[in-house]
Design brief:
It catalyses: 3-phosphoshikimate + phosphoenolpyruvate = 5-O-(1-carboxyvinyl)-3-phosphoshikimate + phosphate. Monomer. Pathway: Metabolic intermediate biosynthesis; chorismate biosynthesis; chorismate from D-erythrose 4-phosphate and phosphoenolpyruvate: step 6/7. Catalyzes the transfer of the enolpyruvyl moiety of phosphoenolpyruvate (PEP) to the 5-hydroxyl of shikimate-3-phosphate (S3P) to produce enolpyruvyl shikimate-3-phosphate and inorganic phosphate. The chain has 12 helices and 26 strands. By secondary structure, it is an alpha/beta fold. The protein folds into 2 domains: 219 residues, Enolpyruvate transferase domain (UDP-n-acetylglucosamine1-carboxyvinyl-transferase, Chain, Alpha-beta prism), CATH 3.65.10.10; 214 residues, Enolpyruvate transferase domain (UDP-n-acetylglucosamine1-carboxyvinyl-transferase, Chain, Alpha-beta prism), CATH 3.65.10.10. The strands form 7 sheets. It has a 4-stranded mixed beta sheet. Helix 7 runs parallel beside helix 9. The longest helix is centred in the N-terminal third of the chain and has 13 residues. The chain starts with 10 loop residues before the first strand and ends in a 6-residue tail after the last strand. The chain binds shikimate-3-phosphate and phosphoenolpyruvate (PEP).
Amino acid sequence: MSPSAGSVRPLAALASGPLRGRIRIPGDKSISHRALMLGALAIGETVIEGLLEGGDVLATAEAMRAFGATVTRQAPGRWTVNGLGVGGLLEPEDVVDFGNAGTGVRLAMGLASNQATTVTFTGDASLRRRPMGRILDPLRRMGVQVLARSKDRLPLTLKGPDVALPIDYRVPVASAQVKSAVLLAGLNAPGVTRLVEPVATRDHTERMLAAFGAAIEIETNADGERVISLEGQRDLRPQSVEVPGDPSAAAFPIVAALIVEGSDITVESVLLNPLRSGLLETLIEMGGDITIEKRRTVGGESVGDIRVRASRLRAVNVPAGRAPSMIDEYPILAVAGSFAEGRTVMEGLGELRVKESDRIAAVAAGLAANGIACEEGPESLVVTGGSGVGGGRVTTHLDHRIAMSFLVLGLATADRVAIDDAAPIATSFPEFRDLMTGLGARFEELEPPAS
Ligand SMILES: O=C(O)C1=C[C@@H](OP(=O)(O)O)[C@@H](O)[C@H](O)C1
Ligand SMILES: C=C(OP(=O)(O)O)C(=O)O
């Protein structure tokens, strides 16, 4: 049973008046996980400001405690981690449960399996369905023994080798989680772990490893691919980490403001790393009135305030090559496409089938339930704008991004849009409802189904 089973919270979004105001969204989820993990490996105190306090990141905080690090919440968003040194994690006494968090469990499998301990990992019903072989394959090559049920699904047990082997690895799927798991495992391998990344994905692990003092080098080979080399068994130095606002969370108010007539909002301090900015680029191509103000650097990353005004959108073809820079944003882009003139074509989406839900199928079903024309291909979605009326009830499949995307849809359709469960939103954006309500969004709680 999933942690959220038994506390299902159906919710509807109602047609809303113009959205207005300024908001600050919480810290980036990817950076928050990594700050806790590297803090757990550095000897001394790492201070994190602006940590995302969503369910996924809290699961990572709890896991780092289970590995023996001292993790303390000093104030809202301000956390300290006292780590144990590279290779110094303790063997947890119990199964380590990452709830809904793919990033958390996959990075932690790399982090914890480069030393001679035995750890059992699990997660909720959604996470137990997701593929782990992509992480286990390189870890097996590094000498890790794996006991997993069929198809390498959670729960599974990893027993680290006495000495991990550094490997040369070509990342076979565009995945920052796979890249990061191998790099974290490489931290305690004697010698150089070398990764070739044919398609560039978010680079937060590389940036943070460099900031913590790891011996990491990044080059581009003759084929234009990123090559990352990491020399293992070096100490990490504790850091002060300031976490910028999460662009994947900001995506929801941004699209809401574009499609709700008369809106004018500003989302402050959003991470603008180009490997995360595909959605902004696409929305601007669609004619979205989006301006970036006060560009600055926070914690080594570019950030800015994003002003968004309601706009007439036109459909575009989103190139498949852009997918890694907006992989979590396709559900909300499909909602934007529902209000654009023409057919928005999204390709290269194979990875969406193995997220918290099969997001291609979940988006197609949700749009159809609301009268929006959508064609689903094996790795693509095509949304025809202008046809939507709302009025549907959407199944969210324990997927926070499906839940938030369809609530945003309902703010702009004539009839309300209901979702079967808003509880998973707390995994990545607990403040979603309050912040959106503050801008003028209207929601209505619905009766949970009789059990
Ligand atoms: O490394 C990360 O922090 C993430 C990588 C992406 O997953 P994949 O690596 O599976 O593409 C993304 O979908 C996830 O939300 C966060
Ligand atoms: C895919 C996501 O996260 P994860 O893989 O960490 O569960 C997401 O947040 O959209």
